[in-house]
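pasting for ref
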Amino acid sequence: MTQGPMWRRYLRFFGPDSRADLEEEFRFHLDMRRDRLAREGLSEEQARAEAARRFGDITGFREECERIDAHMTRATHRGERMGRLGQDLRFAGRQLRRSPVVTLAVMLVLGLGIGASAAIYALLDAILLRPLPAVTKPAELVSLTSANISYQMWQDFQPEAAGKAEVAGFATRNLAVGADDRTEMVPTIVATGNYFSVLGTSAFLGRLLGPGDDVPGVTPSAVLSHRYWRARLGADSAIIGRALQVNGFPVTVVGVAQPRFRGSQLTTAPDLWLTANGWLPIAGPSYRGQSFDRRGWTWLQVVARLEAGTSLDNLQALLTRSVENQVATYPNNVPPTEVRLQPATLASAGRDGRGAVVGFMGVLAGTVGLVLLLSAANVANLLLARAAERRREIAVRTALGAGRGRLAGQFLTESLVLAVGGGVIGLLVAPLMLGVLRRWTFPGGISLGALGLTLDWRLVLVALGLAVVTGVLFGLAPAMQAGRQDPAAALYGARSGTGRDRRRLQAVLLAGQVAISLTLLIAAGLFGRSLRRGLGADLGFNAEPLAVASVNLSLSRYNFAQATVYYEQTLERVRALPGVTDAAWMLASPLTADSDAESFQLVGDPPPPKGERRPTVEINVVTPSYWRMLGLPITRGRGFEETDDASTGHVTVVNETFVNRYSRGRDPVGLRMTIADDTVEIVGVSRDMAYHSIREEPRPYAYFPAKQFMPLVGLSSMVLMTRSSGNPESILPSVRAGLAGVDPRVPITGPSALSSLLDEVLLPERLGVLLVGVCSVLAAIVAAVGIGAAVAYAVGRHRRDLALCIALGAEPPRALRDVLAPTLLHMGVGLFIGLLGGAALGRVLSGVLYGLSGVEPGTLAVVTLGVAVLALVATTVPARKALRLDPMTELRSD
């Protein structure tokens, strides 16, 4: 029988080898029972078997005891971990409170970086990751990106695609919608009847349009966007079943779309949806005579949903065969069309816009990510410096038994506290940045304000995740360094390999921060210089006092005679408004992409060689006051007069580029040319100007009087330009009221200051100044804090050397300069690398930004001087602290 003190067994049960203790306890009880049964007369074997039988289910008892032991062990470890975490958090709080200014500065820098990164993630999510909100399974949608198709071609697709995909067509149009006695132009999606079912969305109110709404002769029905329903109709639920005036016709509202639904494109934020057959009868005079039976009228874009088992390649091959069959069957009606499909999530930015959007998002994300990385590197540098100052504390803790993991955990806890504080600030910064970004329009025409960017739970998780990852990143280096420190060397002030490794790491971090911040500041300077040159560019006219508004008389069913009267009445009314000095009508406003071009032939010139086309000239139809209002001089001949009407010979005014390119040394005034089946006489030459953009090359341009050539362009949209005696913003309400007073049924777009169009022309420069400028300032702040930390570390590491030199008679400034020489050298290396990066960046941006021809020495010099001054200022506080060092006190403390 095994004997032993009972208390030892029970104490050992909770020891480190609980399984062995449990087995010993089982053997003790079995042996006692076996011995008792043996004394009662049973044999050894019988006693052992009977003892096991009476004891019960040993396996079950063993498993239950092991489960209890594991639970108690986990609870003990959990309690120990939570206790250690609480200690680390309290200790970290005390350490951070010792330098509150630095702590708050670090949290603020991290918060700005994290907030900016979270805002950029929201953009990335809305534009690239989830560009089709309120759409069911967007991964199943594909778009035809190579060409448009006709309505008849779409109908022919249906039986061939049956069972493999559901194909819908749509197009974007601007229609005049009258609500509450006010008519305005509204972006509209005209679609086939299966459009909503293909996209897989549901109605917020009422119902959506279906195939029954897309049949010839149907009463037009419409679905409203949630935004338009709330903003213009006051979220009136009684609107369902009522009629709105669309292009002057009643259209019944049958439903309201989901709040975030915008269709399959980012570049269009529609407020109205109509079916194709509901739209055509009310489309206006421009579409009079059109028929969906015309296979050559290719106006529909295509979106399709793949059925299970059908791939994009399969559908592309199927549609290609369908197009080839239609071309072969109707060679004179169906143009050869290439079929190229793309996932709808990729095509949502438009056929030509995704590359620009992805590129711009890449630059934006890279810049913000760089700032966040700099923030992490800066705090790592700061914590390394603080670890150096605490080397004796760490040595004492190590000598008393603290392990590497315990020390590393303490430093990681401090860094995580800083990061979480930065994350909280980031959650406050992100909505503010989103509010700023909502005012901008990205490349490709994507209005950020229409994307519904909000702070949701995913954005919160991203901000907190960035905080944790950043905390681990910048806390890892000091944690590893602290664990590798030799306590004896630290206690006796000896140099160590760990110290050398730390100094090398800090040198790399410091030089990198200075270099990257300098490069970003140079980029911001280049964007700013380009913007300044763009704003000061010679447009050929002064845009500051001008304002523009546009109307489309065709949507109000005007004829040419009525339109002429309308234009004359509006000019008379608007010119009489207070603050308005002049006004003119024109087909195309300056600084827009709107233009028409016509081929022409100068009378007397030989026709072009066979196989070559006649030259083309961009045209504009204007009223006589056009040049007077713009202040654009007529360099030869005359401009238009009120007598240039349908009863006189047709005339034109051309620009100087037209004369230089086509007159061949002849006097242009008096030359005649044929254009648009008409013969006109050149009566004047106008100075060149910026027609579409400040970046454009000079182009031939011709003007025609509105009274003679309105039939040339049809009753399309016309622009009213006004000149004010002061700020054009002040006259905008009265101009709109003046236009509405002539005919409230006419839809009006604007008015707005013409300078806002210049802002759009200079969009890359403005975005660059705002975004890169903010990020570069953040980077400069980060670098300044990092420089201060590096100087503080250098001074702290050499306090004893400084005290000894001063005690032996050295001047404090000289001794400090010797101590800071390596740090200043690292800063100089960073400045040199940043200069090289800025020079390279200047060459890259010279092909993108206006007015830049390459490296800008002035910008490089000014920004470098600014960073150098900032670096010197950042060294002031720790340097002054070192100069106040008492050598005797420092040496006695050693």
